[in-house]
């Protein structure tokens, strides 16, 4: 693909983003929000590049890395993890700008960091692994959002040899994510991500498989799969290539976790077989207690907002009905977003308030108008 005209002159620092999908596009947007920067986008799919250019996420587009990474000040690799490993090899073979920071956004960090130690140790380049712990089941650059990582944890896995000043430099590049940076050992990262993200994903996909099989005999089943099933399996709609790679690169963590999961299932099976009512209730009570105590996303280190979620039916004018109720009571909101998570059932509006008291007032008056309103997502 030929270079297109640049919005941002070459005099600006340059960021090269490899893989213009959901995460690459979102990171690029967040960098743009805080920096005067020239962004070069690289993707194997020309349609993604065209879209990224049309959405003004990038200034120039390439289908290979040669032309765009060599003079970059920061290189962000945002492809599925196996491709990221290949990209690292390709980048290391090229002459790079002295002092360049290279980072990735992959969901696993152990294999990536091991490779980076071999490839970049002798170079005037710093590799710092990264993983923003937020995303979506939707892939592709069209879903990119500059605020995707707001308030989310953003894991960084600098190698032991990496200077703290370089980590701070990367954080400055990524400051527009408004994320909460946390430095982790790569293996610990993989253990934690395995438990909060990777194993749940396997379980979600397996529940969908089970439903699909049963639906062959009971076609109505798909229509009955409502709230609970959709909530727990939303993530099964995510990009299969991305998840294939995650399982491949985190196998040593996931295999024992899956054994443990199967043994937990056997324990529950025994409780049911034995009619152990007390044991079953304890199983759910303990899970509820722990789940209810998990910190909610909105409590960030950066100034937080108070969120309220409103179920809304899918009809024209519904948003103005909700905002109208708030306006009638003189309550201001700082943000409103239509959540996609349950789009097939009902819509969910997320309203953000500056003060907790405003949220409570909003909740009271919306409930009085028969809206279904709740505080945690
Ligand atoms: N989706 C999430 O929720 C999420 C969250 C955090 C991190 N991640 C990680 O981010 C990375 C990207 O995920 P995504 O959700 O943005 O996926 P995506 O499918 O939306 O985007 C991936 C992009 O990489 C491009 N690509 C593939 N091979 C390439 C190559 N050889 N050269 C250049 N471009 C190539 C694809 O064309 C696509 O545009 C993955 O490593 C994933 O583990 C994903
Ligand atoms: O919200 C979702 O759809 C996600 O699955 C995001 C999610 C996660 O499991 O939390 C998925 C993989 C990424 O590595 C990080 C975030």
Automatic annotation (TrEMBL):
Keywords: Amino-acid biosynthesis, Aromatic amino acid biosynthesis, NAD, Oxidoreductase, Tyrosine biosynthesis. Residues 13-302 form the Prephenate/arogenate dehydrogenase domain. Signal peptide: none annotated. InterPro entries: 6-PGluconate_DH-like_C_sf, ACT-like_dom_sf, ACT_dom, NAD(P)-bd_dom_sf, PDH_C, PDH_N, Preph/Arog_dehydrog, Prephen_DH. One of its GO terms (molecular function) is NAD+ binding. GO terms for biological process: tyrosine biosynthetic process. Pathway: Amino-acid biosynthesis; L-tyrosine biosynthesis; (4-hydroxyphenyl)pyruvate from prephenate (NAD(+) route): step 1/1. Residues 307-377 form the ACT domain. Its EC number is 1.3.1.12. It catalyses: prephenate + NAD(+) = 3-(4-hydroxyphenyl)pyruvate + CO2 + NADH. It comes from the Bacteria. Belongs to the prephenate/arogenate dehydrogenase family. PANTHER family: PREPHENATE DEHYDROGENASE, PREPHENATE DEHYDROGENASE [NADP(+)]. NCBIfam families: PRK06545.1-5 (NF005107). This is Prephenate dehydrogenase.
